[in-house]
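Methods: example folding runs. The two proteins below were folded one after another, and each record is reproduced exactly as written to the output file, sequence line first and structure-token line second.
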Amino acid sequence: MCIETIQGEGGICPVNPEFLELASRLTKQGGALLVLDEIQCGLGRTGRHFAYQHYAVLPDVVTVAKPLACGLPLGAILTTERVASCIHPGMHGTTFGGGPLACAVAIEFLREEKKLLKHVRTLGEYFHAALETLDKKHKSIHDVRGAGLMLAVELVSPELAKAVAKQLLHQGIIINRTHETVLRFLPPYVIQKKHVDQLIGALDAALHKNAESAYEKTLKKEKTATSRRKAVHALPRTLAEICENVRDFVVLEHDERIIGCGALHLYGVHLAEIRSITVDPSSQSNGGGRRLVKALLAQAEKHKVTCVCLFTRIPEFFSRLGFTTAAHQDLPDKIHKDCYQCPRLYRCDEVAMVRGDVPTFAILPPPKNWLKIHA
């Protein structure tokens, strides 16, 4: 089983710890090998020698390459003694590899890498904190993630990510856009705080400029959109819209103060979705989120809905409220009318959950490749 510990081209997505531990157990039970691809995330990039050292897992094989010889062509595999004992002379080789120059450079790099690990961790924390600050300022930032000096900012649209990367390039700052919406940061290990500050300032300005432009384009599109599509994709944002959609919009109050809100969207007589739940942090520990969900469920009961679904990154919370995990493809009405328009369609990282009986749909044919959604 081959896994990239932190996906690079896939958008800087660290592997889930539970998933990696399960993969390790299953390969051991089945006599298979766990191979971790650390060509991009290994050799100090995350502040440890290898990214897998952030997990409680020991792989059988690790692949390394890119920084090993500082640009010269050189790759290597690291194995456990058990695996190494199975490889004999002549079984594994390369026509162009292991040259004396590349190997000499690699030896020097490994000496220097040990000295730089603390610096990578320190600058990585500083860099990550600065990106988190931008996240609080810009609604166009969907997520900030990564480890050490392998970081990413995911934006809300491919167009915005492309525009921001282009503007930064004009300012002499080279970053990479991966997986359409993700800005990837892989700076040199010797980067200093002044370089991070320079980037953050430029990124802040680029987001302000290009997000406003993207917002204007979105408003123009919304004006020409049908009322049906607006009902599916837009939550109430003005008082008039709230009044128009009041039966589906729930506001939670305490001591004359709004502490949370959420929406219930109906997909028909059988299915409704709880979406866009927001609860004041000070009320979360007092059961505010639980009360809000129960209020939305009560709203669903009034509509005599037999199944309520939602998509979340905190399934543990909703499982305590009677929700169970479901496959995304079990909810084709949701996918047809909402997910199919989403730029994250084929890389959704949210868990689908349902409460009640999942209805059988035969209204619409499935869109092309829709089963890839929960791959």
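Second run, written to the same file directly after the first:
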Amino acid sequence: MIYFYVYDGESFSLKTNANEKKDILLEFSPEPTKELEAVDIQGNWNHIVSQVIDFSLKTEGISIQIYELNKGENLVVLDDYNGVYNMDIELGEEEIDRLIIMTEDMNSNGNEELVVVIDRGATFKEVNIYTYRDSKWHCILTAENLISTDLSDDGKCELITTSMGSLPPYIVIYRWNGDTFEKTDINEETGFLYSTLVNINDEAYIEAGNPEEPYFFKYKDGKLIQYTIYEK
């Protein structure tokens, strides 16, 4: 595929062709949230590992613990020192060392969320996001291959899922509605055969369409905004 850029004397860049610009309004559907269930640690469970995490919404901190219930059956729990809760994560023995735990504001609400990433293989990383509200723990999103990137050039990153090798390529965009995450699948919403993330001149674009007729988009305010590539 050949890309054409506009050169302004200093650098190449893509420009919007105002006469051909087209917005595609996307429909979003809410993602389910799940309240974590309390669990009693049994004496016959084999404790494998614990990790203490600083978490701004719980000043005393929290601890993530893994127990072996039976051979090959592991349980991941969250201990906030007031209770112990099942995080509802299936974890194989070989995946224990590939578990990543961190805290980050994932929905731009000003509060940290607890993020647990499990490396399931070369093309599949499962991401679980948890929050503490109303004195309860909730899983507010489970997604695969979740990344954050600025698709609107406003300095704020959007959360998206990419296919990472599976065919046809696809992109799912997530947004926060103040209470839950919502998502939209670009291929399903537009009828395009594929969608993928591309980097052109250090900017992120969504390339979508069909192999013979690709289109390029930015995302803003629930819309895909089409950019036309042309030669000056």
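Comment on the second run: Confidence is low (pLDDT under 50) at residues 1-8, 15-19.
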